Amino acid sequence: MVKMKKTMLACMLGSLAYMAGGYAVAQDKAAEATERYKPNHELIVAVEPAVGQDPGQVELGKKLWFDPRLSRSGFISCNSCHNLSMGGSDNLPTSIGHNWQEGPINSPTVLNSSLNFVQFWDGRAADLKEQAGGPIANPMEMAFTHDLAVEILESIPAYKEEFKKVFGKDEITIDEITQALASFEETLVTPNARFDLWLKGDDNAINDQELRGYLTFKNSGCVACHNGVAVGGNTFQKMGVIEPYVTDNESAGVAGVTGNDIDRMRFKVPTLRNVELTYPYFHDGAANTLAESVDIMGRLQLGRKFTENEIEDIVAFLKTLTGDQPQLVMPILPPSSDLTPRAKPFD
Amino acid sequence: MVKMKKTMLACMLGSLAYMAGGYAVAQDKAAEATERYKPNHELIVAVEPAVGQDPGQVELGKKLWFDPRLSRSGFISCNSCHNLSMGGSDNLPTSIGHNWQEGPINSPTVLNSSLNFVQFWDGRAADLKEQAGGPIANPMEMAFTHDLAVEILESIPAYKEEFKKVFGKDEITIDEITQALASFEETLVTPNARFDLWLKGDDNAINDQELRGYLTFKNSGCVACHNGVAVGGNTFQKMGVIEPYVTDNESAGVAGVTGNDIDRMRFKVPTLRNVELTYPYFHDGAANTLAESVDIMGRLQLGRKFTENEIEDIVAFLKTLTGDQPQLVMPILPPSSDLTPRAKPFD
Fold this sequence. Notes:
homodimer; two-stranded antiparallel sheet; globular; 13 helices; Cytochrome Bc1 Complex, Chain D, domain 2; 2 domains; mainly alpha; 4 strands
């Protein structure tokens, strides 16, 4: 009973800080995202295949996604850190940026990222389009500028033509670049996870252990934050509610955006979809395994020490959240022209 | 006439040094490779689709090709420097290796590399299988060891199972890893270049300028070295026959293998297939454009100053060597297990 109270307190604190952060618009978006999917008696909602994207934008966005010419080195593309062969992540604690710089935070998966209520761990981008411009110009990541990225694309005849065809404009701007990237990213949802099939009525889609794991996950309070269509991604919460989270990582969380001290160590709850593929875990990538992560979450967020069996069950449940991975034909990128500025990665 | 003599002299010197280098076996392989393809009245032979590879090895090799866990950082895969979205190259002067080290030489394209008589610029690997082990263990490149790469794969259940299925053995060794990679690479040929269609009798496959460019290419002696099915890739030749090639690059060429001073600045002639996509050019990646490359080659190798028109024609011809690029569905890589050693890219 005491434990349950602590859990409720944690959630209420989360919600209060969340409102204080002024993310009312974001909250609407989360509700809207869930609305698009079938409601269910459970707090977790099945994800459905993406619909409605502009095919031209998606194809162009796919090229840009894989194009390292959007980075200063000519070596790093979106896919370098959000690798679609590896659950849309890089499976590193924190990412490698320009000149092998150590990134400040774990790369979140791009899979199902359209279902997040805001983007980045600290929610500093409202949507995927706004997010997409970030890494290109971040000196720790792709280390380029939007102007130079535009200059590169403008110098490549096949890109020029494709932008014109897709957007109907003579000039390429960062606006079209990020719009195309966002449209591509919106297609990267992963339907047909076994747990979704179970939600839809196929009782045999998960086994007894997985079901037991789900019930423990639900009844112990994990689902208070990890819910909705993304099984997360729809609120900010403090990392370390009952006990503080010990880390060398200096990320300030939402406080970096709001400037409010109460938002320190507050982060967007990550999606648990495909979590089997997106190790290591937490914003600092410090937890190598799901078992370790579940143990830490139980103690720090819920004040509950899961038994080994409970952890095994929950991990088994979490692995039922792996959905169909995007089957992508690698794009063939249009070659640079003689006028395209050449990358000088060692300058 | 004087110029023609110089050209012949250059080719003879090349052949002599080649024989002196003791690459008789390699020469047989080049002949064999050409034999697989339809003979033609021209010195250039059309490339045909790959046949005969073991499908299981190819699929496994494709996964390994895209798997950065074969590198110490967990960040660099084969595809990082031989990007199949970019003509099988990285479009950088020299490659970026572990810890952002500057590589010593331009990454050659993997496309049609099975048609090369030996592998690497200096021919230090006899075939693709031998080549594949090099970058994994090269401290300037993927900076791993074969033993650690094997340890990683052994710890991943789905890989373990796939190796067993494909090779019928209980243990994974570097031998199977490189064999699978080589089998995948053998599929990366690019048939149906417009020039190949022309070789096969379609007179309309290339236009007048392209044909003129080809005739200049042939009649001025370029074809003496750039011939066969790969339009190169079947002899070593000295870079800088008539005039020395000036470069900051310290690669010794074949001399690094043979220890013979006569082999300094001698390199495997690169394939010209897909050369439109594989900029920048030469072993040091110092030439940014095809026009610049043709000009330099004419002066240094043939003692001939091509006119601007001739250069434009030859460049137009070279672009007819772009063939069908491999259409690859990106593999979904099997996730690491709890026992898989985690990469520490910043240690």
